């Protein structure tokens, strides 16, 4: 398998989020992320699309590293309840709700340091038969990927 450049979790992606996702005792998975100014939307708050990206990434890691399933995101619904302040250390958590065939329903959320829920999401993830993370296999198809020269 080739080197992964996953935007969310690869340590080798120079502009990636470098997330480290880990299992918890209750079967959920979690990661921490502290947004900096360059993750901002309006002044002082984290960009919502990036918060959704962190949740999406956590869910993908949960299924891959927790269950050994390579899954793509088929649907992602996000509700933004509270702004995430720049500089806040936020905990993101995912929980598998249902598995039906190759389709997984997963709930995920972001917790502010004071315990309030800032973001809630529900995802539908479609498991694929083979590994998806290899940039080698993609580059065989596309010959050259911008940013990976
Ligand atoms: C290095 C490690 C990194 C790990 C973390 C990575 C996390 C990041 C995750 C991502 O960002 S993945 C990238 C973003 N997602 C994609 O690129 C997915 C693009 N979409 C697809 O590839 C296809 O649409 C998909 C695989 C989801 C489904 O296509 P298929 O051709 O396999 O299925 P099809 O559309 O024929 O549907 C098959 C069945 O699934 C059902 N289905 C498909 N999508 C569904 C959905 N969202 N909800 C419920 N059912 C769904 C569909 O109704 C149907 O049911 P029936 O067979 O009963 O008719």
Automatic annotation (TrEMBL):
Q: Which UniProt keywords apply?
A: Apoptosis, Cell membrane, Cell projection, Cytoplasm, Fatty acid metabolism, Hydrolase, Lipid metabolism, Membrane, Transit peptide
Q: Which Pfam families match?
A: 4HBT
Please give the biological process terms from Gene Ontology that the record holds: fatty acid metabolic process
Q: Which domain of life is it from?
A: Bacteria
Q: Where in the cell is it found?
A: Cell projection, Ruffle membrane; Cytoplasm; Membrane
Keyword Zinc-finger: yes or no? no
- SUPFAM superfamilies listed in its UniProt record: Thioesterase/thiol ester dehydrase-isomerase
Enzyme Commission identifier(s): 3.1.2.2
**Thioesterase domain: which residues?**
43-107
Recorded GO cellular component terms are: cytoplasm; membrane
For this UniProt entry, what is the primary localization, expressed as one broad class?
membrane
Membrane topology recorded in Swiss-Prot or TrEMBL: Peripheral membrane protein
Catalytic function, reaction form: hexadecanoyl-CoA + H2O = hexadecanoate + CoA + H(+); octanoyl-CoA + H2O = octanoate + CoA + H(+); tetradecanoyl-CoA + H2O = tetradecanoate + CoA + H(+); (5Z,8Z,11Z,14Z)-eicosatetraenoyl-CoA + H2O = (5Z,8Z,11Z,14Z)-eicosatetraenoate + CoA + H(+)
**Any idea which GO molecular function terms this record carries?**
hydrolase activity
InterPro entries membership = HotDog_dom_sf, THEM4/THEM5_acyl-CoA_thioest, Thioestr_dom
- Give the family from UniProt: Belongs to the THEM4/THEM5 thioesterase family.
Task: Specify the protein name.
Answer: Acyl-coenzyme A thioesterase THEM4
């Amino acid at each position: 398998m080739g080197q992964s450049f996953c935007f969310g979790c690869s340590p080798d992606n120079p502009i990636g989020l470098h997330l480290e996702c880990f299992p918890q005792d209750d079967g959920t998975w979690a990661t921490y992320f502290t947004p900096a100014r360059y993750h901002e939307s309006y002044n002082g708050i984290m960009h919502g699309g990036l918060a959704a990206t962190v949740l999406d990434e956590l869910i993908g890691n949960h299924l891959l590293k927790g269950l050994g399933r390579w899954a793509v995101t088929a649907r992602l619904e996000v509700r933004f309840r509270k702004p995430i302040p720049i500089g806040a250390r936020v905990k993101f958590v995912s929980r598998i709700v249902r598995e039906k065939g190759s389709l997984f329903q997963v709930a995920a959320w972001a917790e502010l340091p004071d315990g309030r829920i800032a973001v809630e999401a529900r995802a539908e993830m479609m498991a694929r038969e083979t590994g998806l993370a290899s940039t080698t296999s993609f580059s065989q198809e596309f010959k050259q990927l911008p940013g990976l020269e």
